[in-house]
Write the structure tokens for this entry.
Amino acid sequence: MLLKISIILFAIFVIFLLLYLLSVKKSKKKGFIQKFTGFISLISLLCAVVFLIIFCKANNIKIFNRLKSYDVLEKYTQTLKSTDAQTAYPLLPTEVFAHNEQTYFKNSQNDLFEIQFAEEKYNLTTVENKVDNIVSGNTIKATIKDNGDLVLDGYLLYSKYESKFVEFNNEIIAKSVASVSATSNSVMYVTDKGELYALGFNEYGQLGDTTTKNKSEPVFVKDGVTKAEISDTHSMIIDKFGTLYAVGDNSYSQLGNKTAVSSTEFTKIMQGVKDIKLGNYLSFVLTVNGELYTAGRNDLGQLGNNGGEFKAELILALKGVEKISIHNNTCAALTYDGKLYVWGDNAENKAGIANKEIIISPTEVSNDIYDFTLSDKGIIAITKDRNVIITNDKGEKVTVADFAAQVPDAYKDRFLATHELTDEKV
């Protein structure tokens, strides 16, 4: 609407500008017509510009390219030579993200870099500044900027089959957002105030609003929430007291409530929960003391219980865990001391272990990892030395960014400073 108003005002500006020029041509004296047409053309131009700026701001469109693009490898080396490791440290990678075939990392300055592969060489390109987090479904990417703006780009797949096609073009849909979860069908996010909102596919009641009606715009669901995760069929939330709730489809007992009964209302599951990740009919629950519990499908070893039989409850899979990830049916966990374990679907060696289609229990693939994520390409990880590595289709580790970094001892390990190590495998 704002863009349409801006275009109409600009058209008015052009019309009255032409009338003004014609009046000037006929008479050099400034009569009423000249003054009127000149005034209207000026006012319409100013208003058109104002509405255009408002539209661009609302849709996160940059009129002028303010992206601070730089060669991060070169800049780190130069900064290290001219200053010291402490000053240069903020340039080093700290988190990795993935969206379909695209892979990214960001540094402590919240600058985002895309890892591009061309002619058997990896290149790093600055793609955005001031990014806090990225999550994605196959058709949509959700980005939280460091000012709390939630930006959506892409479309919700469910809407292809409905009258309204829900599409986003780098659009800000919410502000003051603390966390977000997204699939190709739905988006769920939590604000800084603990307010939970959701939109998208809701056939199983997974949006948690007690209905099964799809939502084309965000709807308020619940307050007092610190974390929310959604899959195509179910969702889980953690409240401010660390209590876990689940809602939606439960055909594989993925809600972890010891039943196979689905629900359109949040059901209390357990307490003392720190993090959650959801996959295809699959749930991972991480407790505050580092215990990883799994529930749901197990046909590809997703539960990590040595290929054991299905159970309609949460199963303890690993201890000493700090971070978890699920990509389709491939699963991984990072322990306090930097050990990376993988299990589940390993087709095309995507879990980093060669010549093994299914991994039925958590298997260590590396012991020096700072951060990681699972993606279409396989494992993307940052080592403790801040090199970025990726696993190829042979299950081999390939270094895509070698910083030759001098990491200060205080920053070497990501989790050991705040946790007592309990790296015990179940």
